């Protein structure tokens, strides 16, 4: 379990540290963490706590086909920038798949979830935790299936008029037209299979101190 200790690392030339997905239509990028771990260890004798989502958690096409159309999912992240800043832990949200995990939603290597997704949730992992909808015996032993990474979601625009009250009077004056964004509790994720393109990047990326 993570502790309430933290250590700040300044990352210079931040944007250049990232590797972008070779397909510009796939909203994924990767940042090597080995330099961060090395810096924390050398500078403060700190070991950075993390939980890795390894290849064994990424489902094959066959395994995806054996899942049900509706699966319970969870997402770990920082909606609206909210998190447990005392214990250094993200927040967990729960929902269901909104498209079959084996289907390429809208023809892309993506899926849809029925889940409350807000700004700050982008980059959050989406997982199926346990349950009976697994394929072979080996898959049933897994603690989780890593479906993908949230990248965004649809919004609706609602129009209305602002109403202003004069003092304690109940008389209302209609103001200007107001347009508000309303989130519709749906999210889109890039399938975890798309992460494999970063394997070569990780192997050849030089480990340098930050």
Task: State the main characteristics.
single chain; 210 residues; alpha+beta; Thrombin, subunit H; six-stranded antiparallel barrel; two-stranded antiparallel sheet; 4 helices; 13% helix
Count every beta strand, where a strand is a DSSP E run of 2 or more residues.
10
Flag low-confidence runs: none
Q: Under the CATH scheme, which class?
A: Mainly Beta
What are the secondary-structure elements, in order, as H or E? EEHHEEEEHEEEEH
Structural notes for this entry:
- The chain has 210 residues and is of the alpha+beta class.
- The protein has a single domain, classed as Thrombin, subunit H, CATH 2.40.10.10.
- The protein is 13% helix and 30% strand.
- It is built from four helices and ten strands.
- The chain has helices at 34-44, 61-65, 137-140, 198-204; strands at 19-20, 29-30, 72-77, 91-97, 110-114, 125-129, 144-152, 155-165, 172-183, 187-191.
- Strands 3-4-5-10-7-6 form a six-stranded antiparallel beta barrel.
- A hairpin with an 8-residue loop joins strand 1 (19-20) and strand 2.
- The two termini are 26 Å apart.
């Amino acid at each position: 379990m993570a502790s309430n200790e933290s250590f700040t690392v300044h990352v210079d030339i931040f944007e250049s540290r990232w590797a972008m997905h070779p397909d510009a239509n796939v909203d994924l990028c990767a940042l090597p963490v080995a330099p961060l771990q090395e810096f924390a260890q050398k500078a403060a004798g700190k070991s950075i706590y993390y939980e890795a989502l390894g290849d064994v958690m990424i489902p094959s096409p066959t395994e995806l086909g054996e899942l049900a159309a509706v699966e319970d999912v969870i997402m770990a992240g920082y909606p609206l920038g909210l998190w447990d800043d005392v214990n250094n832990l993200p927040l967990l949200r729960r929902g269901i798949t909104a498209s079959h995990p084996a289907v390429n939603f809208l023809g892309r290597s993506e899926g849809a979830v029925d889940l409350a997704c807000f700004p700050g949730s982008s980059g959050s992992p989406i997982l199926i935790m346990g349950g009976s909808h697994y394929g072979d015996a080996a898959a049933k032993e897994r603690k989780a299936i890593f479906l993908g990474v949230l990248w965004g979601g649809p919004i609706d625009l609602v129009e209305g008029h602002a109403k202003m009250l004069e003092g304690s009077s109940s008389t209302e004056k209609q103001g200007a037209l107001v347009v508000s964004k309303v989130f519709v509790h749906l999210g889109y994720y890039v399938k975890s299979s798309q992460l494999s393109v970063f394997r070569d990047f990780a192997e050849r990326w030089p480990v340098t101190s930050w």
